[in-house]
Amino acid sequence: MESFPKALLDGYRTFATRRLPTEQSRYRELSERGQSPETMVIGCCDSRVSPEVIFDAGPGELFVVRNIANLVPVYQPDSGAHGVSAALEYGVSVLRVNHIVILGHAQCGGIRAFVDKIEPLSPGDFIGKWMAMFIKPGEVVEQRSHETMQGFVTRIEKAAVFRSIENLMTFPFVRTRVESGELLLHGAYFGVAEGSLFVLDRTTKEFQSVRDPSPHP
Ligand SMILES: [Zn+2]
Fold first, then answer.
1. pLDDT digits (tens, 9 = 90+) for 46-92
2. Which residues are within 8 A (CB) of 31 and not within 5 positions of it... i.e. 6 or more apart?
3. Residue 108 Cα, ligand 1 centroid: separation in angstroms?
4. Dist. CA 184 → ligand 1 center (Å)
5. 48 alpha carbon to ligand 1 midpoint, in Å?
6. Contact, 129 vs 70, CB < 8 A?
7. How far apart are CA 183 and CA 118, in angstroms?
8. How many angstroms is it from 171 CA to the middle of ligand 1?
9. Buried b vs exposed e over 165-198: b needs ≥16 C-beta within 10 Å?
10. What pTM does this model have?
């Protein structure tokens, strides 16, 4: 146990002495009757964008899957092992969540790697192959004239949320429940520096701030 990160041991002890006492009954209850979260969140691995922290969620409230750049692949029922698809199947068909939130964010390293077309980080180039599914065959993604690099990156970070929502609908078990009104799909975007949250208005295709209006205009 000597090599186990001290910060994690300390963190657990803090959890066990401060948070657990207030949530022990909730954990016991969840242990006995199982989890039944209403919401599934598909977010990025980024250590700054923890859904449970951002949404102030307790145990059993969020069913979370995180991957590079919060991407949902297209439904592909082949012999491959698909982690996100397995999580989706469990969340939608077994837990029967009522909401799926795709949580994008600012300064996403996966999107930055995609935009910069960086050299593969490893011989397997898992990131490059993973990010490649973001674009459709024949689709060209490039910086627009008069668009700053920052503007371009932000646009692509938000486009990843749109694409993931689009890809969710290629899963028959998602589409069926969306069409029957039992499942709602949402997009959100987290601004890391300000801790701001923007929710996608699917009618206007705009992300709108959900923070309370500032008392200082
Ligand atoms: Zn990210």
1. 999 999 999 999 999 999 999 999 999 999 999 999 999 999 999 99
2. none
3. 4
4. 23
5. 9
6. no
7. 37
8. 23
9. bebbeebeebeebbeeeebebbbbbbbeeeeebb
10. 0.93
